[in-house]
UniProtKB/TrEMBL annotation, chains A, B:
This is Xanthine dehydrogenase. Residues 27-134 form the Aldehyde oxidase/xanthine dehydrogenase a/b hammerhead domain. GO terms for molecular function: iron ion binding; oxidoreductase activity. Pfam families: Ald_Xan_dh_C, MoCoBD_1, MoCoBD_2. The lineage of its organism: Bacteria, Bacillati, Bacillota, Bacilli, Bacillales.
Length: 766, 766
């Protein structure tokens, strides 16, 4: 019996084991997209617009084309043969600027040459005449009644999002997308409230700064298109390329290599269409290797302005809330309308609010496109509503935690009708973190404590399909479209397959996404993969196991029920059969390899934003900070977070994800902002753009992993990895407010901004 | 109604349409194995044994390793870390010679260098001291009672062939393998015969001479092994590499590129293990690019000596036959034991013979390994029994065709108990070809006519599995392990998928075999793929169609029975739905991509050689030749062949295969032989080794395709492509015998040999 118990207990799931790719990462055996080098490959350089908004009057490439070593020069003229627009919501982004440039850094001309130096030299010889227009580089300017339109003409819809595809793609203002929600009666609710507070909160534009910039190699010939890249969405890139180049999807191979970080920056088409267009013209493979500062001008996170008005009763009950959230998106929509929709959707916070009105908008501006970024619009909203929550508590004279606990949604309650009920326990976890932080203990001077909570829906409807193959020697291949970007999906999927079949983990290999080979997977986004792809892999692996046991049962002339698999061997009493023995001896009946397709489709009932989330990704943050009153510098002394993993497939990775996400939150809280001057990005590199460093790691930095095995994923798992980021800035903001006695409603909490708040010093910030 | 009929009639199957890859072949867009170039790849050179049989006394690589640009030198010492033997029947072939060399040209040392010139220069500096032994380079020497043993020690068995794995792998003679069959009572049968004729026939060793020599690139790192090669058996190569390098199969990726011809030469491991061993030592990708003459020393067809003794009654009835067939295989077994088994099995010919005894052997010799070659042992047997058939007819005073018709197996009769009954109509087709040839018309002087028939079992048990994916845009991917070597399998499989789903052919893409990605397929051999993989693809495609119709039925609220698919659109009355419309509108229920696995396992009842053939590959040849009496030169004036395709998937390709195979038969009949002098191959290049040229194409050269839709493959298809080769030499031999009045029992029918037969001139041939 003891033996059977061991056999049935989890071998790899839930353990803090090293990720399966650690050795390859350490030894450099893993090729990243920037390592891809295809024989005969040419290099490229891009001529970018120096203006944020201008007509292109003329382009003169005559000097560039004469440079020895230049193979070809791609201009807007070459795009006439193509359908050159892409974008996951509206197809509004051209491969190269056509008549107008709409942001500083927009690609205008691209050079293919034998090496990068030649390409860059030739690029410097391209003469483009521009007729500059006034640029729209902030929300206020974009929303002026007679503001020039960043985008004016009708856009073609996309298949990606039915809800969004139904939106009117014609623009008569700079509002790219608008999403409204209301329930109850906010006016009536406010009328009954004892106290109404209204405030405005600001979040700047920030950049993902994955340590690996965007690199893509492409080739195109009569047989089709091959793209070697790093993307979270190989299938979506394939779809864009199919439309742009008029090529059947079956002839397009998008291979996504493990990325050196993405955080959303490498979701949906980035330079892949340009790389293919260059390869098409050059007739050879071409690499597009962006620099860090080019990457920063390719994609970034939306800035936001959030107005919240709340009505509360004296006892602390929230009765009504109105949220107006405007996301400052860039010159092209990318997936920002969806960000506005999803971020807007949960912008009221995980609270019980009977009367609620939300208006969320995505506003075009002459800045680089904004797209997916860890948290997908929720961090911006959380900064606002969790500052606001503390302000409400303060105004009521209530403890910030007690006020939250009074209004917080409980497990089983609905945030919005039609969506999955809350599937986590906010209150007890918040209490636990507060206790851990010694919330009630006295503080030293210039210290403050703060908490914040947040929540995010995952994605629906989506689908994942995986193929699992059990080879003749008992090793296993998992073929799937989930992209590895450091989050450890390859390791998690290998663990799930190994666990389900009960074979040693080191026998399992997970392939990289290759659209020509692996079955369809929606995207690697929204913390969805552990759940959706995990279930697909689990389903396939279970089928493999069942087929294997059936074959063993035939050989052993035994009932399947009497057989177990123990570490890759089939055990019946004293008898043991290896997997090769079973497969070889039964191959004439069932084939030597056992192969199975596992699918997981998530098409639930409809919430206000479409399909209902498969799970909620909650987060809790409790922090203690110290402010230097002389400089305004904020030091995060303690940072306690909690993450609801349902069941951690790999405990080490879950903690790593939460710690990493929280560190990124420290960056957003204290340092990060992209600064535009007349639409020109002035801090595009890591020298000028401050990200959190090792010295910023809090002395007490812990992540609590909650495992109730109550998620829809394999073994009860939920998706994780975005949490910390969402609530860390607000928690730090609340702590800083406590330390200095006043709220600063605008991120980041730079020393200057904090110092000015302390000193109430007037004057513009520098 | 007319419309429906069109919709249901075959669109692509059976038509003489261009193969789908013709444009890519013509434009050079298809990368062949010799085009594979991996970034950072190193080159190599091999030091070959100059002796056919010798002990290796010492190897001195000190000068070679000092050559600038040399990366590493691989010797037998490096093999100690590996299990360095491979082979599909016995694992008897080492990556490099260890203690002994067993054939001239055997790899002894290999050099990796930055380029080929450096590698070859370094190879020239390697000093190997040999102690030569007497070589065994012909059957007689090998079978001497006290002949030295080519292979002496126990060999490890292989999983590939159960029947052969049971054979004793220890060698106490040079008989590598022996296979016996008997039925009835030959002694008693002979005793009742009116006439007994016994004769001996000879077939030389010949080479495949694919126009592309053997090229492989390999890399190996901590993540596993990748091999880019051209092989008919990627899964078998993977298995060898797994054993040699102790690597799970899931970590081995063998990618087989479309080959520039193979004809069996690129079946089973050739230089792949060496390439991986070099890449392992070099720590970088390495190419092994054999020259033509190195390829000729890698693999070749077995020579044969066939003794046939037959008893016939005066009325022409065959009553007894005894066949003794010895195949001269090389120094390592490769798949030659299976060649001996299968060629021996059918060495009595497609005739009704109640008393039959067959003894077939594979005999080791100090010559390059012999392996698979189009016809797999049957051409050697056919040369013998069809010469013999004419001799019997002549002795009986019967017409050669009438004698054949009297004894020929009819549809439904069994060649041997347990095997599939004959599934073709020998007699009427033979009559038709004879009529076509005007068999009864008088001949001009020095002209002769001949016929020959043959038959070959395909392979069993085997299995094929395919994945078919219907993408969102209505295009289709077929993932399969069948290797394209010019035979047109990619085209045929695309046609089968397009036909079954009823979508335009140009929307279908067939992937190349990639063991990391495509499901298991036994091999691309034995003309099995159209049947086995064809059925697997068909099964998957049917499932795709059925799922697509179900989804359309849901959308249209109609019964599936009322819907048809017409050229990629779903039609119901006046309504039409495109595939993308269906997939997008039903994706939340069933996923956006329809994916299906099709499997076809062939595990039939047991014939004397194992599983019973899924179909018989028959062939008929009728020819008229003209002999120049002054030079002995034979010109094939007319060559009429027939091929039973069951149903031609692509008529143009079926004819092309039969014509090509017949041309190769002309080579074997008139020109081809590998000449060994003291075990040293003296004609390893196309300058010295005569293959058929365009000037050898007969003036009247036709292939009749029989289509009774009676095969086990899709649409009633049978496998084709080996036929003509099997019987062409015998038909030409019989025609030459008629022209000159005497049979020459030894191939090839060189001018000298024919001239000597004419003049009965004594003296040794040169």
């Amino acid at each position: 019996m003891g033996k059977i118990e061991i056999a049935n207990s989890l071998k790899t799931i839930g353990r803090a084991i090293p990720r399966t790719d650690y050795r390859a990462k350490i030894t450099g055996a893993i090729p990243y997209p920037s390592d891809v080098a295809v024989e005969g490959m040419l290099e490229s350089a891009i001529v970018h617009s120096p203006f944020a908004h201008a007509e292109i009057e003329s382009i003169d490439i005559s000097a560039a084309i004469e440079v020895p070593g230049v193979i070809c020069v791609l201009t807007r003229d070459d795009l006439k043969e193509l359908d050159p627009y892409f974008g996951p919501v509206f197809r509004d982004q051209p491969i190269l600027a056509i008549d107008r440039v709409r942001y500083e850094g927009e690609p205008v001309v691209a050079i293919v040459a034998v090496d990068r130096k030649t390409a860059h030299y030739a690029a410097s010889l391209v003469e483009v005449e521009y007729h500059p227009h006034p640029e729209i580089d902030n929300l206020e300017a974009a929303l002026e009644p007679n503001a020039p339109l960043v985008q004016s003409y009708a856009q073609r819809g996309s298949h990606y999002s039915k809800v969004l595809a139904d939106a009117d793609p014609r623009h008569t203002s700079n509002v790219a997308f608008k999403w409204d929600y209301d329930r109850g009666n906010v006016v009536a609710g406010m009328a009954t409230a004892d106290l109404i507070i209204e405030n405005e909160y600001r979040v700047p534009i920030i950049h993902h700064f994955p340590l690996e910039p965007i690199h893509t190699v492409a080739k195109m010939d009569s047989e089709g298109i091959t793209v070697w890249t790093g993307t979270q969405t190989p299938m979506a890139v394939r779809q864009d390329l199919a439309v742009i180049f008029g090529c059947p999807q079956s002839k397009i191979q998008v291979v996504s290599f493990p990325m050196g970080g993405s955080f959303g920056a490498k979701a949906f088409s980035k330079v892949e269409p340009l790389a293919v267009a260059l390869a098409r013209k050059a007739g050879k493979p071409v690499r597009v290797a962006l620099s860090m500062s080019e990457t920063a001008r390719t994609i970034r996170r939306a800035g936001a302005r959030v107005k919240i008005k709340s009505g509360v009763n004296r006892d602390g009950t929230l009765v009504a809330r109105k949220v107006e959230i405007d996301y400052q998106i860039g010159a092209y929509a990318d997936c920002a309308p969806r960000v506005a929709q999803k971020g807007g959707y949960v912008s009221a916070g995980p609270y019980r609010i009977p009367n609620l009105e939300i208006r969320s908008r995505a506003i075009y501006s002459n800045t680089p496109p904004s797209g997916a970024y860890r948290g997908f619009g929720v961090p911006q909203a959380t900064w606002a509503y969790e500052q606001h929550t503390d302000e409400l508590a303060k105004a009521l004279g209530m403890d910030a935690i007690e006020f939250r606990l009074k209004n917080m949604l409980e497990r089983g309650e609905s945030y919005a009708e039609g969506d999955t009920p809350i599937d986590t326990d906010y209150a007890p976890v918040l209490r636990e973190l507060a206790n851990e932080l010694e919330w009630d203990q006295p503080l030293k001077p210039w210290r403050g404590r703060g908490v914040a909570v947040s929540f995010k829906p995952s994605q629906a409807p989506t689908e994942s399909t995986a193929i699992v193959r059990l080879h003749a020697d008992g090793s296993v291949s998992v073929l799937m479209g989930t992209a590895e970007m450091g989050q450890g999906s390859n390791s998690a999927m290998a663990q799930i397959a190994a666990e389900e079949i009960n074979i040693p983990l080191e026998r399992v290999v997970v392939t990289k996404p290759d659209t020509a080979m692996v079955p369809f997977d929606s995207t690697t986004t929204a913390s969805r993969s552990t759940v959706a792809m995990g279930r697909a892999v689990q389903n396939a692996a279970r089928d493999i196991k069942s087929k294997l046991l059936k074959r063993a049962a035939i050989l052993l002339k035994e009932s399947v029920d009497n057989l177990i698999i123990e570490n890759g061997e089939i055990v019946f009493g004293q008898q043991r059969l290896t997997i090769p023995e079973i497969l070889y001896q039964t191959k004439e009946i069932s084939g030597i390899e056992i192969i199975s397709i596992g699918q997981f489709i998530l098409a639930p009932t409809r919430s206000p934003i479409g399909g209902s989330t498969p799970f909620w990704e909650p987060c809790w943050v409790a922090t203690e900070v110290e402010v230097d009153p002389n400089t305004g510098r904020v030091k995060v002394c303690r940072l306690l977070t909690a993450v609801d993993a349902g069941k951690a497939i790999n405990l080490q990775q879950v903690e790593g994800q939460d710690i990493g996400s929280s560190m990124q939150g420290i960056g957003a809280a204290l340092y990060e902002q992209m600064i535009f001057e007349s639409g020109v990005l002035s801090n595009p590199s890591l020298v000028q753009y401050r990200v959190p460093l090792f010295m910023d790691v809090p002395d007490d930095f812990r992540s609590k992993v909650i495992e109730n095995e109550d998620g829809p994923g394999p073994f009860g798992a939920k998706g994780v990895g975005e949490g910390g980021l969402m609530a860390v800035p607000a928690a730090i903001g609340n702590a800083v407010a406590q330390a200095i006695g006043t709220h600063i409603n605008q991120l980041p909490l730079t020393p200057e901004r904090v110092w000015r708040a302390i000193t109430k010093k007037e004057g513009s910030e520098t």
